[in-house]
Amino acid sequence: MGLGRMIKFAIFEVLQFAGLCLPLLIIMQRFAAIIAKVKTSARPPGDGSTAYWLIVASSIAYVTSIALLIWVPLKSLVFMKKKFLVGRKNWRPVALVYVILSTLPCFAFLIASSEVQINNNMKHDTFTELPVSLVLFSLICIDVVERIRCCRLTGQGERSTHTFFSNIHKKCTVPGQTVPNPAQPGPSRLNNRNQNGSGARLESNGTVLGVPGTNGRPFTISGLSPLDARADEFVDSFMFWMDTVEMVRVAGHPLVFYSGWVFPIYIFSYISCLRVVVMPHSPLLSSMGVALQDLPFFFVRAGLIALFGFVTPILYLMKNLLICLAFVYFNFMTKLRVFNTERVFF
């Protein structure tokens, strides 16, 4: 392993391990502070400091145990490319373990924090910003690292080149002229030109020259500027989590946090997080997105708006509804005989 690969490997592993530990430690520390305040304000008052340090010590012990007994052995098996872990290309074992070991306890303690304060008539901490944002940001970091792990950190990576050419080949072929496929042998690529003898070629910066209508200007997927697949993965990952981020944000609203609605919000938000286990370009992802996110989120948001007003933007409610309707229409209704328009013309 070269020096560059070792540095990349170390950076990725540090980011993922920090994403595993920090959200747990911070949320459990905040939960310990709530328990200590409850103990102090109880009648008769209890020893709040003892309860605080007991929970903090338990959180440290939990993080240490899962790191040594589960996380490190799993990463070792993945690094050694064991077939039962990396042989199948439709799921990500590291993401699955992270969601179970880190995200699930974090959401459980957020629910417990709400219930403890409700039962003791307290309004001490709604976890509005740092803890929840850290949980979701760690999820995004885990997702991004898993997406770009096989790409280089500098220069043109193999995966980005392949993705770029695949998109160009699928979307940018015009009549009378085709973009050469990098997978074809050399002579075939040289002969793949139009009648005028011109052909598209890939430049070192990832742009394609020679496509008609560009007047010699570099052509890319967007038609405006070069787009590296690694940057595209960052954008896709953040867009992938925006709906879950908004749903969890609603739980931090005081009216919602000190009510029983934290249960469905965090439960369905956690269920939506399970989508990260599936590979980003798997055909199962669209079905899982509707079943695990858009459909349950629509009913939760409809209930929140009905009871608390517009604590969540109606834009997300319409987004969930339209995605569910579009999924049903394009996957089921268009297959019905009444929507078969071919018989009109043949």
Strand order of the largest sheet: 1-2
Name the beta content range: under 5%
Based on Cα principal axes, name the global outline: flat
Indicate the structural class.
mainly alpha
Provide the gyration radius in Å: 25 Å
The quaternary structure here is single chain
Distance between the termini: 61 Å
Low-confidence stretches: 157-179, 182-200, 202-208, 211-225
Q: What does the main sheet amount to?
A: 2 strands, antiparallel
Helix/strand order = HHHHHHHEEHHHHHH
Number of helices: 13
Total number of domains: 1
Task: Specify the helix fraction band.
Answer: 55-70%
The averaged pLDDT comes out at 77
The count of β-strands is: 2
Region (Disordered): 176-207
Transmembrane segments: 51-74, 95-114, 126-145, 255-278, 298-330
Keywords: Membrane, Transmembrane, Transmembrane helix
Biased composition (Polar residues): 189-198
Tags for this model:
346 residues, mainly alpha, two-stranded antiparallel sheet, 66% helix
